[in-house]
Structures are given as structure tokens and as C-alpha cells.
Amino acid sequence: MSASSSRPAQHLHILVLTDRDWTHPQGGGTGTNLFGQIARWVAWGHRVTVIAGDYEGAAKVEELGPLLTIHRMGGRKSVFPRAAWAVRRRGIGADADVVLEVINGIAFFTPIWLRKPRVALVHHVHRRMYVEELGRRGAIAAWLLETIPLRLLYRGTPFLTISHSARRDLITVGVPGDDIHVTYLGVEPEQFHRGERSPTPLLLYLGRLKQYKRIENVLDVLEAIPEAELEIAGAGSHRPALETEIARRGLGDRARLLGFVDEHEKPVLYGRAWVALTASSAEGWCLTVTEAAACGTPSAALRVGGLPESIVDGETGMLADDVPELTDKVREIVEHPELRDRLGEAAEVRARSLTWENTAERSLDVLGAAADTDHEPMRAALQRSQTLKAIGLAMASMGANAIQALFVGIFAHILGAASYGSLARLVTTVVILNVPGIALQAAAAREVALGRLGHGRQLSAALVSWARYLAVAFVLLSAAAILARHQLASIMSVDQEWAAALTISASCLWLFLSLERGVLSGLHAYKPVGLSILGEAVARLGFALALAAAGAGVTGAFIGMPLGWIAMIVALAVVLRRRLGPPEGVPRRTLGSLIAAAWAPMVALTFVFLLQNLDVFLIPLQASKKAAGAYAGAATAAKVAIWVAVGIAVYLLPEAARRAAEGRDPRPVLGRAAAIVGAVAAPVLLLFALVPTLLLKFALGPEFTRAAGALPLLALAMSLLALVNLGVQYMLALFQYRFLLLLAVVTAVEPLLLTSAPGGLTAFAALVLVVQTAAASGMLVLCLRTRRMGVPAEAPAPA
Length: 799
Known about the structure:
This protein is an alpha/beta fold. The protein is 62% helix and 8% strand.
């Protein structure tokens, strides 16, 4: 192997992460590609550590020389977390200069847990394969495991791929074209050579037996050419289906399943075949084409993926647009041996020009460049990245929402549809009563971000003063609510009087928790805020389960919420004391003046929360008690995007206010937040649209499936409302209040529409969607036209 001036001057230590190495029975083209390149790197003096999936009979650790070690762990699914644990905790590859991550349909998510230069190797995008293998579930899996990671997490990561077709597919899913490097696959010249050709027409399929390989199409070709025989070499989960299909078609005497074949058997099979066939739905390059060509055997394939690059149509093989055309072209080769020989000779010449040395050198150039790049420490990058701050809060909200979904599922099963409807109305009442707290959080965040509430110990003194006032209010409201508990329960249409009374006094707890979160977000302290959002959900579920186990029923399930708030109030009080110090001096703002300054957020968020929950209150007027309970469960499940937006709002408002105060355009902050909500909402909407009945049945119970038709409509409506909420936060940050008229009109129209809705939960949900579409459209226009801060009211001078 000749030296190359492009090869890195310093020997590298390369850590390779892959789900299957080249020794794996299902290693396929990915394994061959890794072996072809890694063998060269090691021969050139580079050190390689491989972490790969385990398989039966394989050594857990295998030393293949002083410069090459393979660590095998986990299966197809578990190898990914096991690899992260091995690197982070066991130190495998800890001294690597660069990481090569093989993304074979599922990412290792290295940007989250690995602080090293990295290069991603993608042979082809798997979206279509996911769908063909898993149906509707596959579309969701592809989005979550491949598309979203590639689009959001791997920004700035260099990519290697094996064809220009694969490069185009990567660009389609959001990878910048400038980050993608194409390196064609090579072939081992010593391994592949001409063999003894079969005297009778013999077709060959060599590869994994998977559904997306569409081997049934190869059987179609065989059926149409009665003088030919077919050898199918390879192993995989689709073999039983193929055996059944071969028997059904009566092809048992002409089609032979050879099973797994090792590298030494491949040249024999290629050499005796007349044509190598592939009909896969997706191929980045198709290495078997090059291997067959090196044995003087032409290939015939469908014109998909990278096959038009690996086969020169009419020169080194044949390409077809469909199976009938493929059949005609294979028949032409079979009937004209001179054509077979001409194609085979040209294919062999081209294959000899595709060397692993060239492939390995080009990949090594990319790895060396990545290793030489000055990388900012991960912690510093995370602290600096505004997008990641917003994503962090979104993830906290998503986690809290997942726990909320678990809460809904558990208590829907425990309580049943009718009783869960009572719990939903209690919770919805609290959500609406929480509007002042959320408004106060927005006002506090904005004022702290602009430096209008003081700093340090003075701000700490203000928090202590506010806490005293709220404690007094809690006692007085509790006494009044207990006296009026019967009336409150009647208004909420519930039987739990004590729980109904608690909805009023608990709002004081929420007010103070919101103040703490507002102050922290105004101080850029987003991490404790995010953790408190997640912690609140965990504490609520824990307390509710404990009370349910004690037989407290709906009331116990509800009381878990205020108990969770108390736990977070204490936790954030500790964080604030550490950040601000002990209270000292006179507060710059009284609680009353801060509440007065929060009038616009309070009005705006009241509209938002009415838009979010009016349908749950109005549905009992249109449907039976059980139907209304089913609708309430579906409405709760549909609010994924809402909770994500609530989390991002913690970031959006103070950051937009800061940018506007500095004279910069605040709209990029809004755009970033909206993009994150959209990225979360899209797969959720798809899931709700594809399998609503299944989701409601298993998550909430069979009683809730009557709302299956309403679920996707509600999910879309709530996603639009989530964007409205972001627009509200953006306008509040800029002291712009023109949007209040829009929300007032939409909120007034909604109950008029819903009370005149035709029968059925789906029709009711469709009207909710109409209302939210109108609100989102109007808010979008206003936000795009607004980029400057209005005139804020003067903050009172210090006493």
C-alpha cells in the first residue's frame, strides 16, 4: 500500500461505533466497508478501537493485533446505550482522537454524551425501509431515530456516505450539503476473481434476507425465465416468508436458499452466476454489484438509490424502472451469452479501479480534518447555545408531559371514565386559576431580565416579602373555600367538595412557585427551572399514587398536584438563596406593584388558557357523562405541544426582551422556539393520526376509544395553540399588546361555535380546530410585523 500525502501526518486513534462489525452474520455491506477501510488504516499505523453489537458465539473482546481491538456488547437495540456506558463509564476509547459513528438507521446520539471530534458514516437513509418493515409504526420510528437526530443533533458534524444518491437523501432530511463527503466503496482484488461459469443460466441474489430487499421481485424474474435457476445466498428474518413463497409458486426445483455464506464462498457464487440480481427498495451503493463485477459477472437491478452509480446501464450491467423491465433485461442477458460476457468484462475493468485504498484514504482525510479542528468544550458549547437552552427546557417539558401521560393512563384505569372526568375538571379548574401565576412568572422574568427588580440580596428580600403576603392569602382563601366547598363542587360538576375547595387556596402555592421560576429565568438560570418542571410532575405522580393506595380516590389523585408544588417551592428556594444570598435591604417592588405590572400577561394568558380548556368545560353540554370523560382524556393527551411551549416560554420571554432592549431583532428567538415546538409536534401528530384508537385503548382504556376520531383534530388544534402561546410570550416581552383584541374576539367566538356544534365528539373537535387555526393565523401576522420594544412603564424607584 503506497503512502499518500493526504494521509494525516500523525497516527490517529479512531474509535468506531457500529451496531454490527464485519464478523457479524448480518454485517452486510456495512461490515465489508468497515473491514476494507479499517484494515488499511491499521496497516498505515493508525490505532482503531471498535465498539459493536454482540452476537452468538462472538468474543466479548477481541484483539486483532496491537492496533485493532473489538469490544462487543448488546444486541440490535441495546448496543446504543451500552456503547455510551462503555465510553463514558468504562473508558473504552477514552483517548481516541476522533470518533467514526456508523448510523445504520438508528443514531448513537453521540452529540449528547460524547465530547470528542466525530464523523458520521451513513450508507443510506432508512426512512423507506422503516415503513416497508414496520408499516405505520416505521414512519414514526424513522422520524424519531433517524430524521430528527440527523437534522437537529448532528449540525456541524462531517458526514461520509457512499454515493451521490445517498448524499441527496441526507440533504433531504436536513444535513447541510457542504458537510457531506462521498467515498465510493472498493473491492478486495485478491479475494474476488473469475470462476467457472455455470453451463446453464444461473441467477444469483447475495445479501441479507430482509423484507425491504424485495427478493420476491427476483422470484418474479425467475418465474418468467423458465430455463434459469436461482441461488439465494444470505441469512435474515425474511427467510421463512421466502421459503413459503417459493413453495407457493412451485419454484422449489429452481430456487435454492443457501443460507449464510462466508467470504471465501462469495467468489465461487459470483463466478458461476450469469447475472447478479437486486431489487431492493433502497441501496446507498450495493457492494455486491462491485464484488460480482470483480468476478466478471454483470448485475441487473432496479434504478433506485445509488445503483445508477454502481452500475453503468448497458455498459457494466442493466438497470430497470420496474420488475417487468428488469425481467426483459435479464432475459436478454440469458439469451445472449456474448452480451453477458461483454457486460462482465466492462464491469470487471471498472471494479478494479474501485480500490479500498482510495476509499480508506478519502475517509481518513475527513477523520484527520475533524481531529485537527479546535473543538469547543461541550459544557461551554451547551452553556453558550441558545437553541440548546430552549431544547433543554422543551425536553424538561416533554419529560413532564410524558409523566403527565403516565399519570393520565394510571388514573384513567384506576378511576374509570366517569370519575376521571371529575378529576379532569378539577385539574382544568386549577389550570385556569393558575393563569395569574403564569402571568406573574412572565412579568417577573421580563422585569428581572431588564434589571428592574433589583439584584442579589435586594431581590432576595423581595422574594421573602412576597412569600409572607402569599402565606397570609393562602390561610384566608383556604378558610373561605372550605366554607363554600359545596357551592364550588357544584360549579365544577364534581362530587369531591374538599378537592374543589383546595383548587382556590392552592393557587397561592402556584403563585409563589411561578415567582421563583420567573426570577430564575430572568437570571438566565434555566437549568433549575427545567428541573423543577420535571420534578413537579414526578412529585405529583408519587404523592397521588401514595394517596390512591390509601383509598383517597379522586381527591387523593388531585392533592398530589399541590403537594408537588410545595416540594418544588422548597427546592427552588434553596437554589435562589445560593444565587442571591440572604435577604438584605428594602425590596424594589412590592408584590402589589408587580401584580399591577402583570395585567397584560394576566389578560393574555387568561385568553390562552380559556382557549385551551373551554372545550373540556363545554363538552358535558353536548355529550353524555362517559362520552365527555372520554373527550377529556383525549384532550389531555392532545396537549403535548402545549406543555412543550410552556417550557420554552420560560426561555423565550426574557431572551426576546433582552435582545429588543439591546436594539437587536428578537424574531430569531421566536423562530427558534417555534421550530422546536414544530419538531416535537410533527411526530406526535403523525402518531395520533395513524393509530388513535390503539393509543387511547392502551393508554387510557377501552372506554376512551369513542374519542379516537377527535384525538388527531385536538392534537393539531393544540399544536396551533402552542404556537399562539409562543406568540403571546413574544409580544409580552416587547410590551406590545395589540394582540389582546385578537384573542378576545377568538375567545368570545369559541363558546358560541361549540354550543351550536352538531352531534358527535369528532365534529366538536373539528370546531375547536377551526378556532385555533384562526388564532394562530392572526398571531403569526402580528408577530412577523413586530420587532421593536414598546414603551414599558417606569419601574418605581427604590424606597
